């Protein structure tokens, strides 16, 4: 016999927060001689729960907040300062950074998020190539190639071209198999060995006499495209390679690899004489020889 019946009822209440913004957008535009400082915005968080709620806030650089832990009574509001630091974008490449402000409720599995977007605008260029290969051309001649660069930023962009000089400023000698054989013969000779070795050392000319860039500097307005002319002057017996650097005021540096080689037109014949012997007058005879490009 049942003596007593009990009924239990319970109501589960999830923490509920309202945000003044579900997406916070920051924008930094570079200005000459102006130091990049953090941009600050405020976010209001209101408790719409029937119970007291405690939560933690977390975000990753370049975003930051002024406080991490909060406790709100029902209907109460708290203000949070959210900062975006554009100075942390050391590459100076324009573009957005996406992150999230995470709201973690203590003693409850629920998670809330506020989207954070920080956009930086630096002077940027777009180059249609990063390598200019002039190939092999005749000694003491020149060849021109062209590169298009476009200002893809919101502001006027000032640029300056220069060469990055390394250990071999002009180039490296081109040594062919015949030259190596002759050099070995010279080294076997006792007399005049030092003189022959010194004669082989030929210093290349300065790099700005081998490669030329026009224009070297200028200013591009937003969306403007300019054609840059690169000229290679072939130096006899040298293979030249150098990096050309385009430095942008307030922006990144762009590098273009330049290389070229100078040589002579050299060829050889497999035979200098063709002997057909005797051929009957109403018949034909054929013979072959080869032309070899040794340049």
3D architecture notes:
Strands 11, 13, 14, 16, 18 and 19 form a 6-stranded mixed sheet that branches. This protein has a 5-stranded mixed sheet with strand order 2-9-8-4-6, with no helix packed on it. The protein contains 3 helices and 21 strands. By secondary structure, the chain is mainly beta. It has helices spanning 177-188, 193-200, 207-210; strands at residues 17-19, 23-29, 39-47, 53-58, 63-65, 69-72, 77-84, 95-105, 111-121, 125-127, 131-138, 142-151, 157-164, 172-173, 211-214, 217-220, 225-233, 238-248, 253-263, 267-269, 291-293.
Give descriptors for this structure.
6-stranded mixed beta sheet; 295 residues; single chain; 47% strand; mainly beta; 5-stranded mixed beta sheet
Chain-wise SSE layout:
Blueprint: E1 17-19, E2 23-29, E3 39-47, E4 53-58, E5 63-65, E6 69-72, E7 77-84, E8 95-105, E9 111-121, E10 125-127, E11 131-138, E12 142-151, E13 157-164, E14 172-173, H1 177-188, H2 193-200, H3 207-210, E15 211-214, E16 217-220, E17 225-233, E18 238-248, E19 253-263, E20 267-269, E21 291-293
Parallel strand pairs: 2-9, 11-19
Antiparallel strand pairs: 1-3, 3-7, 4-6, 4-8, 5-7, 8-9, 10-12, 12-17, 13-16, 13-18, 14-18, 15-17, 18-19, 20-21
Estimate what percentage of residues fall within beta strands: over 45%
Mean pLDDT across every amino acid position: 84
Largest sheet properties: 6 strands, mixed
Question: What structural class results from the helix and strand content?
Answer: mainly beta
- Radius of gyration of CA atoms, rounded to a whole number: 37 Å
State the low-pLDDT regions, or none: 173-184
Question: H/E series, N to C?
Answer: EEEEEEEEEEEEEEHHHEEEEEEE
| Number of H- or I-type helical stretches | 3
Total number of strands? 21
Tell me the helix content.
under 10%
What's the overall geometry? elongated
How many angstroms does the end-to-end distance come to?
114 Å
């Amino acid at each position: 016999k049942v003596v007593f019946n009990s009924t239990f009822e319970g109501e589960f209440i999830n923490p509920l927060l309202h945000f003044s913004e579900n997406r916070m957008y920051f924008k930094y535009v570079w200005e000459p001689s102006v130091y990049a400082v953090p941009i600050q915005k405020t976010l209001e968080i209101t408790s719409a729960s029937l119970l007291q709620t405690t939560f933690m806030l977390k975000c990753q650089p370049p975003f930051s907040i002024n406080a991490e832990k909060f406790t709100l009574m029902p209907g109460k509001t708290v203000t949070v300062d959210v900062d975006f630091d554009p100075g942390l974008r050391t590459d100076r490449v324009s573009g957005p950074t996406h992150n999230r402000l995470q709201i973690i409720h203590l003693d409850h599995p629920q998670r809330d998020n506020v989207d954070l977007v920080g956009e930086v605008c630096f002077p940027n260029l777009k180059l249609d190539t990063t390598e200019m290969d002039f190939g092999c051309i005749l000694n003491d001649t020149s060849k021109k190639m062209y590169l298009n660069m476009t200002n893809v930023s919101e502001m006027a962009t000032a640029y300056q071209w220069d060469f990055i000089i390394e250990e071999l400023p002009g180039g490296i000698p081109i040594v062919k198999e015949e030259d190596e054989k002759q050099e070995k013969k010279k080294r076997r000779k006792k007399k005049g060995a030092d003189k022959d070795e010194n004669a082989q050392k030929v210093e290349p000319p300065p790099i700005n006499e081998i490669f030329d860039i026009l224009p070297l500097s200028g200013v591009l307005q937003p969306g403007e495209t300019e054609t840059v002319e690169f000229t290679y002057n072939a130096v006899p017996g040298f293979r030249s390679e150098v990096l050309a650097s385009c430095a942008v005021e307030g922006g990144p540096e762009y590098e273009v690899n330049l290389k070229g080689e100078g040589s002579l037109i050299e060829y050889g014949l497999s035979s200098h004489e063709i002997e057909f012997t005797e051929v009957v007058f109403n018949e034909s005879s054929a013979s072959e020889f080869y032309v070899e490009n040794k340049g």
